[in-house]
Amino acid sequence: MAETTGATAQVVLVTGAAGNLGRAVAALLAAEGAALVAIDRAAGPLEAMVAALPGEGRHLALPGVDLGDPAACAAAVAQAMARFGRLDGAAHTVGGFAGATIEEGGPELFEQMFRLNTMTTANVLRAAIAAMRPAGRGSLVAVGATNGVRAPAGLAAYAASKSGVHRLVEAYAEELKPTGIRVNAVLPGTVDTPQNRAAMPDADPSLWVAPAQIAAVVGFLLSDAASGVTGVLLPVTARG
User: Taking the domain 11-236, which CATH number applies?
Assistant: First the structure.
């Protein structure tokens, strides 16, 4: 039997929930009373993150889901529906980054970036949409990139894959307008993470955007306050 979550609580799927951005999104949504379907590859970090969230026992942790597999995404959404009986939103924060010059970036890199960024987005969104259609409502948020709008040197494969995410969001949003399901994307600039600080020790991270700042925008797009917003690619760059 499906678990009830209360009249005002959202049920939101968050992929990459133990990562830098996913963790910030999960924390914000849980603090606002949402019940989370938290997905991440690593069981330990995911379970520790969920255990630290407010609302003990309210959330569903699904470790090890292969987001590159459409059937695995559909199965994860089916588990969410079995537990909660509905899915109100989804925030897909999983992705990959790699840079290479023209000579270095061969077909394998393009395929890798396309699988990690474009295809995981397509798989997660399609699975969530199938669950949302009967209710005639829902909100989906993907993570694009400012580099997917204007690509710098050395990031052809990454930028092309994020541009693919942008085109998915635009096309899905147009197709779903009659259904009441909204699709949007946030486009971060350089994100202030431990990994980026280590990779760019001479940069000024005060100019970068923090995960919590991006999460706040994701939370807005998932909320009823953004009920009139769909098909938007929203840059979130702080001062960078």
Answer: 3.40.50.720
Query: In which residue are the tokens 């089916």 written?
Result: 78
Domain ranges of the chain: 11-236
Residue type (1 letter), 141: V
pLDDT of residue 5: 46
Q: Quick one: tokens of 215?
A: 């999460």
Residue 9 binned pLDDT confidence (cut-offs 50, 70, 90): confident
Q: What pTM does this model have?
A: 0.94
| Rounded Cα–Cα distance for residues 18 and 41 (Å) | 9
Q: What amino acid is encoded at 137 in this protein? A: R
The SS3 assignment for 147 reads helix
DSSP state of 3: P
**What is the DSSP track for 205-237?**
GGGSBPHHHHHHHHHHHHSGGGTT--S-EEEE-
Number of helices (H), then strands (E), in the chain: 8, 7
Output the CA torsion sign for 61, 67, 71, 72: negative
